From TrEMBL:
InterPro entries: 5-3_exonuclease_C_sf. This is Flap endonuclease 1. Residues 80-121 are annotated as: Disordered. Residues 104-121 have a biased composition (Basic residues). GO terms for molecular function: endonuclease activity. It comes from the Eukaryota. Keywords: Endonuclease, Hydrolase, Nuclease.
Length: 121
């Protein structure tokens, strides 16, 4: 076992068997499992989660209602179904921007240059 003082295990705890469960778990082949979506068994869920595991009955019943509501609702549509592509207008290409006084193309404004102060060593 570990020499870490933070880990407190009972003396007779079967750590080798626990390690073996994680290293080679029992796995069922995916093609041999049949899953079927059906209405939740509310009484069975309440029996297991509330009476056996100690969960709040109100939270379990609210969760069952949410599941039923999701099942009844429509599936979410694709995002592109909300938007339609509009035909591009058949107008002339954009004009070039003109300068300050309406003559010729705009010039890039130059940055003001400031002399750099160099310290002598």
């Amino acid at each position: 076992m570990s020499n870490n003082p933070k880990l407190n295990f009972p003396e007779n705890w079967p750590y080798e068997e626990a390690r073996q469960l994680f290293m080679s778990p029992e796995v069922v082949k995916a093609d041999s499992v049949e899953l079927k979506w059906s209405k939740p068994d509310e009484a069975g869920l309440v029996q297991f989660m509330v009476e056996d595991k100690g969960f709040s009955e109100d939270r379990i019943r609210n969760g069952v209602r949410k599941l039923e509501k999701c099942k009844e609702g429509a599936t979410q549509g694709r995002l592109d179904s909300f938007f339609t592509k509009l035909p591009s207008p058949a107008t002339a290409s954009k004009r070039k921007a003109t300068g300050e006084h309406g003559h010729g193309p705009m010039r890039k404004k130059s940055k003001l240059s400031t002399p750099l102060l160099h310290k002598k060593k």
